[in-house]
Amino acid sequence: MSVILEKPGWWAYTISFAIADSCVAMDHPPVTVFLAIESSCDETAVAILRGEPGGITEVLASEVASQIEEHREHGGVVPEVASRSHSLCLNGLVEKALHTAGIGMGNVDVFGATMGPGLASSLLVGSTAAKAMSCVSGKPFVGVNHMEGHLLSPFMDRSEVPPHVGLIVSGGHTLLMQVRGAGDYLQLGSTRDDAAGEAFDKVGKMLGLPYPGGPEIEKAARDGDSLKYDFPRSMMQGGELDFSFSGLKTAVLYTLQKNRDAKTEDIAASFQAAVVDVLVEKTMRAAKHVRAGVIGLSGGVSLNRTVRDALSARCEKEGLELAVAEPGVCTDNAAMIAFAGLLRFFAGFTDSLDGDIDPNLKL
Ligand code: KG4
Ligand code: ZN
After folding, report:
1. Which residue of 93, 265, 283, 335 pairs with 223 in a disulfide if CB–CB is 3.0 to 4.6 A?
2. 141 pairs with which residues across the strands?
3. 80 pairs with which residues across the strands?
4. Which residue's CA is the closest to the ligand 1 atom numbered 13?
5. CB-ligand 1 contact for 76 (6 Å cutoff)
6. How many alpha carbons lie under 13 Å from residue 304 in its C-beta half-sphere?
7. Cβ distance 347 to 24 under 8 Å?
8. How remote is the CA of residue 200 from the centroid of ligand 1, in Å?
9. Helix, strand or coil for residue 180?
10. Do residues 152 and 160 make contact, with C-beta atoms less than 8 angstroms apart?
11. What gap in Å lies between CA 339 and CA 330, rounded to an integer?
């Protein structure tokens, strides 16, 4: 391993491995079938992808078993309910994915799983299952960061992840990342309190809407007046790239307490408009800051049409390319985990079966 590059991303590692001892064969790269398990929160997911270094990755199967109904009566995710449900449906989901892909377990070359961030008891179910399959089959195991899955998900249909600024807006995170290449990331901004999706869910609860609140607020907002309430857009001053949504959430609460006859649709539309303004402004600011020409948008909140349309319009105006994750890979899924895992594998990384999960794993 004689080539040392400054701040190497995975592609740089790939070069050094190839030069050293052919850990990854660069000339005629093998086609690899990767089976990944995602179980970081309340979706159990199994996906099988086939790919080769520098090629377009093919999704052979992507199965998701959502637990939303089980958690709905509690108004949020209950960790023990989540981990029990993961362990009950995982075996069937693996079989279903193999069936959909039209392959047997013996055709899988690498196993992977989400190692964090997420709920400890949920992460343990998926990662232990994937490690067990790896152990029994003698095939390698690759641990994946859930946030990296989201981050790379807008580029699953490309042969290369371009340098870009990635905005991840999910239930647990709001992150602005500078991506210099696969595996080479710099955090530009994150939330100081609630994540964007969390704010949607909490405001949904205040409005008496079912869990999760995000899609429900989007629905209600269609018939509302987004100018009716002037909710705060926090931390917009200077060049600030961090986010804060707790003041907005409190403003919604006070407005509801003061205006008993406030229309749900108007609150939803005005709240959504405030979130969108902040997300779009900070993303454009980040792109300008690092001179990025491409923006990636991912995570559950990226399903929101108003978020997509507003960011798309600003990108068009500023001459930037916008890559948005396909709807099927916006909320939690295993295809994005397998994609990130495949890139890690092609870069020469595998992980020990003794490695632990990390509920607070950072990108
Ligand atoms: O990425 P994800 O599945 O989970 C995490 O990794 O956290 O995102 C789930 C979040 C939830 O907070 C949900 O309310 C939000 O994404 N969400 C939406 C929409 N669809 C899902 N938020 C706003 N508008 C939507 N259409
Ligand atoms: Zn997620």
Report:
1. 265
2. 111
3. none
4. 214
5. no
6. 35
7. yes
8. 8
9. strand
10. no
11. 14
Using CA atoms, how far apart are residues 269 and 291, in angstroms rounded to an integer?
Answer: 32
- Side chain identity at residue 234, one-letter code: S
Tens digits of per-residue pLDDT, 154-173?
999 999 999 999 999 999 99
How high is the pLDDT of residue 29?
Answer: 54
Q: What is the pLDDT of residues 113-142, one digit of tens each?
A: 999 999 999 999 999 999 999 999 999 999
- Looking at ligand 1, which atom is closest to the CA of residue 201? 14
Task: Record the tokens describing residue 188, joined without a space.
Answer: 């530009």
* Amino acid found at 226: S
Contact criterion met (CB below 8 Å) for 191 and 169 = no
Helix, coil or strand: residue 217: helix
Distance CA 230, CA 324 (A): 29
- 163, two tokens: 């340098």
Enter the tokens of residue 321: 């390319």
Contact 28, 52 (CB under 8 A): no
Give counts: helices (H), strands (E), the chain: 11, 10
Q: Rounded to whole angstroms, what are the CA distances from 25 to 21, 119, 315? A: 9, 37, 38
Ligand 2 center to residue 5 CA distance, Å? 32
Looking at 4-13, 25-34, 94-103, which range is the least confident one?
Answer: 4-13
User: Going edge to edge, which strands form the sheet with 174-181?
Assistant: 184-190, 174-181, 164-169, 294-298, 321-324
Give the DSSP per-residue string, 41-110: SSEEEEEEEEE-TTS--EEEEEEEEE-HHHHHTTTS--HHHHHHHHHHHHHHHHHHHHHHHT--GGG--E
268 vs 79, residue with greater confidence? 268
